[in-house]
Structures are given as structure tokens and as C-alpha cells.
Design goal:
Length: about 140
Amino acid sequence: PGGGVRQMYLAGTGNRTSEVIFVCGAYVGPTRTFSVHEELENYYVFTVSGPQFCRWRENGGEEARDPKGNAVHVSSLLEAIRGSCFNVTQGWWTYEYCYPKGLSQFHLQGQTRKRDPEYSLGVLAEGSPVAAMKMVMLGKASISP
């Protein structure tokens, strides 16, 4: 079945909360693409697509297949992006996702490229049950542009 992995990022600036959903889809070259939208006030949804999220096993959604067909735990699929940051600019705002550090929203000021203002959109609390990954069944796969 198709599906994805969902993580919650909590306790951002002004009680901002973010949800990151990893879904079946494409990525361009060595970088992954992602999209973001503000679902509700101060509640952001990031969608990260990648082919590694396309093949799920029936083992409760806890295993996937790597490109060689080997069974791997879904959490290991995120190791490829550990320590990496990805940015997308939408209008005045730039959004940054750094796995597993957190998410931020900022505006780059002119030639100085200073981040002002900058807001935390939440942090992933290691070991927190609310931040733990879980299987998300989706009606159809999403592909980020």
C-alpha cells in the first residue's frame, strides 16, 4: 500500500506547531523537494516527497523496501537527510526544515541576508510519544513540485 510517515514538531515561537509528512513522490537530483502551507493559524504542514517512501510492506506499515528490495524499518529512510536543511521561499517568507533539529520561518533582509524576523515552527522532542513517527495511510500519493 501507499503511505507516508508523519512527525510532529512542537513548542515553536508563539506556540507554533508543525507536521511533517513524508510521502511517495519524486525528488530532484541530490536534494529533496518539499512544500509547506499554513493549515490553520500557527499550524504548518510540510510535505516531503521521495521515492524511498513509495514501497511499504504489510507489516503494520513499519517496514519499507530499499532500492535493492531489502526490508528496512521506515525510520531508517530518514537517516539519509539527518543533519541536512532544506529551504523553500513562498512570497515574503522562507521556510527551512532541518532534520531532526526543527523548522523555521524567516524573511531574508536585503543584501545582508539577515533573518529578520525569524520564528521557530517547532522542534522534534526525541523520545516524545507525540513526536514519534507513525504510519499515515493516504488516498493517493502526493508529489511535491
